[in-house]
């Protein structure tokens, strides 16, 4: 099909399909009750090297760039903003952790339709689409996992700690 479409048409089609896929993924994800994300599954389960988020801080310097990413949770009415902690209560932190799982799985899901773009893109177009898909989703996945690792570390402390911590300017005081 790429031979039938000019470069401008392919670019417009790529942009329109990505926009449609992003919208569909978000619409599907927010319809699932948050409680379904209360526990880790095989994809969202944190691995040993991710303990407490230190790997993300040391190897990826995530704390330097994570705030530059958009917080899609605040874009839709039914979303859950994750840019700042709004409470230190255990219930809130559990919900926040669940929402990081929802966000992570939504971004993983955005990588699945990538082969669809081969229907109208040539090899160079597919390389560009792959780079876009990775750049648009992998940093978000990493931040969701980093935030969850930190949350779970705080939540694993004695329960009095979760309730006694203050939220100062949106960040959990440690």
From TrEMBL:
GO terms for molecular function: acyltransferase activity. GO terms for cellular component: plasma membrane. Pfam families: CrtO. The chain crosses the membrane at residues 119-143. It is found in: Cell membrane. InterPro entries: CrtO (IPR044021). Pathway: Carotenoid biosynthesis; staphyloxanthin biosynthesis; staphyloxanthin from farnesyl diphosphate: step 5/5. Keywords: Acyltransferase, Cell membrane, Membrane, Signal, Transferase, Transmembrane, Transmembrane helix. It is a single-pass membrane protein. Signal peptide: none annotated. Catalyzes the acylation of glycosyl-4,4'-diaponeurosporenoate, i.e. the esterification of glucose at the C6'' position with the carboxyl group of the C(15) fatty acid 12-methyltetradecanoic acid, to yield staphyloxanthin. This is the last step in the biosynthesis of this orange pigment, present in most staphylococci strains. Belongs to the acyltransferase CrtO family. This is Glycosyl-4,4'-diaponeurosporenoate acyltransferase. It comes from Paenibacillus pasadenensis. The lineage of its organism: Bacteria, Bacillati, Bacillota, Bacilli, Bacillales.
């Amino acid at each position: 099909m790429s031979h039938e479409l000019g470069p401008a048409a392919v670019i417009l089609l790529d942009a329109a399909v990505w926009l449609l896929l992003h919208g569909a993924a978000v619409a599907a994800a927010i319809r699932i009750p948050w409680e379904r994300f209360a526990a880790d599954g095989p994809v969202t389960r944190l691995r040993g090297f991710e303990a407490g988020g230190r790997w993300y801080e040391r190897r990826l310097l995530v704390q330097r760039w994570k705030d530059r990413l958009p917080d899609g949770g605040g874009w839709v009415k039914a979303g859950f903003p994750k840019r700042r902690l709004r409470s230190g209560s255990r219930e809130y932190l559990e919900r926040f952790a669940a929402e990081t799982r929802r966000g992570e799985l939504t971004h993983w899901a955005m990588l699945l339709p990538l082969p669809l773009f081969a229907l109208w893109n040539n090899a160079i177009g597919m390389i560009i689409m792959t780079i876009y898909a990775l750049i648009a989703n992998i940093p978000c996945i990493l931040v969701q996992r980093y935030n969850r690792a930190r949350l779970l570390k705080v939540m694993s402390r004695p329960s009095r700690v979760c309730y006694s911590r203050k939220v100062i300017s949106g960040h959990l005081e440690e």
